[in-house]
Structure formats: C-alpha cells, structure tokens
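Morning, I've got a small favour to ask if you have a moment. It would help a lot if you went through both lines with me. Thanks so much in advance, here it is.

***
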Amino acid sequence: MSQSPVTSRKRGRESDSSPLSRLLTQLKRLRVPCIDHVQANALLGPLVADCLRLSSDSSLETILQAYGWQGGAFTTPVNLFGLSTALSKYRWVRVQELGSGSYAVVYKAKNRETDEIIALKKLRFGFDDQGLPSSTLREISLLKELKHENIVELKDVIFGFGSSSVYVVLECLDCDLRDLLDRDDAAVDLRQVKVRAAVV
C-alpha cells in the first residue's frame, strides 16, 4: 500500500539557527513599534552584522539602510514593525506562480538561507478602512489553531502597518485536494476514502 502524499510529508518549523531567523525572532520578541538607535545597536546590532557578513545580496543592506543602518550601526530610531515586515518579505524568493484566483495569488517560494520551499499566498484584499476581511481572519485563525498531518501548516503571516499587502506563508505540498481527488487510483484503501470524504 502506498502512502498518501498528504500523510508522508515532514512537519515542523524551520531551524532558527540561520542569522536572518534569529534576527526576525528577536524583532518579534521586542513587541514595541520603535526603539532608539542605542537600544537597536545593543539588541539587534550583532544579529544584523551576522546577517550581512553571511549574505552576498546587496538588497539586504539596502533594506537595512532604509531603517537607519549606516556604517555598521543604527544611526536613527528604528521602526521595528516595518523592519520585521521588510525582512520577512526578503527572506522568501519567489520561484514560480502556482495559481491565482479572485482571492489570492499563490507562489512557490524558497528561503534564501535554508532553501526550504513554501507556498507564499499574497492576498488580493489586504487592509482597508475596516481592517482585514473576515474571510482572511477566519482562514488565518483556523490555520493557527488546527494542527494535523492532513491540514496544511501555517508557518507565518506577513503584513505591515500602513501597507495593504498581506502574505500567508504555508508549507508547500506537491498537489492540492482537487489533484488528489482527480487521480485515477484503482485501489484506494478505506482509510484514504474516509480521510478524503472528511476533508470535502
């Protein structure tokens, strides 16, 4: 009996050992919108220096300069939410478009440091005067709560204050439910039928 692609995938978060992951983790821990340059240098400076030392990509330095990094240190107060959003977007390189609809465009993307492949879902309807659409909030809330081998894993949500863009970072699977149901499997075991019926 062959194992379903839905149940044979690896679960879990990517390693936090990469410099960019450590910097993003520290930014999220701070939980304040802005800090002065002295605090930024003490709390973030070594992590930023590690990221730059290990990266050959000039766009990372450009992002950091936009948030006050000059000559090896922060020289102005740092907008932590903006920096976190910019670095979260930078982390993923789009590889190809997987699909699009009226609600979102989904890209296959790769982590710049670890080569992890994910699905990056860019929502067409981000923030408006009333915040996020209820359907977006519902999807994100459910994915945060539900942890099961047959449910796609939510890895991150990227959004910026003052920005209308919202990105949902999901694990990337080799097919979707429609592809799985359309496969011409002559012998499908009863367990798989139950799983597929429960999902639909």
About this structure: Residues 24 and 84 are 6 Å apart (CA to CA). The domain at 92-175 is CATH 3.30.200.20 (Phosphorylase Kinase; domain 1).
